[in-house]
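Kindly go through the following sequence and its backbone structure tokens. Advise at your convenience whether the structure tokens fit the sequence:

___
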Amino acid sequence: MEPNTSFFSRIAIACKIIFSKAYAISLLIPEASATQAIEDAITIQSAETVSALKHTDQESALQLLAILQKEGRLIDFINEDVSAFSDEQVAAASRVVHAGVKKALQQHMSFAPVSDTPEGNSINLSANFDKNAYRLTGNITGSGPFNGTLIHKGWKVADLSLPQLADGIDLHVVAAAEVEL
């Protein structure tokens, strides 16, 4: 990514990555890099390896997308070509999206930092550290313990409470088309 990539372009790229199949696969196989995870997923042959992959609840993901769209118009914002708008217009729109998405997330979940160590400080990880909670970057050699600098404290969902759904709701429709009469 170029250093001059706009904030909103970075948001769009992040959302595309987060909701991509390759990213989901890389989360399921935390020891592998994202590239390796994609290659591994393509070449999976044995039933044993396939059965090790965890089935995800895609309905909850679709429900969360619908909530983020309803409260913050996130999908509208991500799908909008913002290059035609001035920085001031994009900033004003992003404030509305930010407020709505923040409200939606606060209503349905709470977050906690993965690490209580302040960012920029030294951190020690044992040889058997939680590979789901910590990602090592830089010059990684050996099997630990590891000493490094905490670049980002990380986030984990501390509480999740999505609303119950009525029968017959098609979650693939995350935002209904609106028709004014």
Q: What stands out?
A: The chain has a mean pLDDT of 82. Helices lie at 7-18, 21-28, 34-42, 47-52, 58-72, 74-79, 87-108. The longest strand covers residues 155-160. Residues 115-153 form one domain.
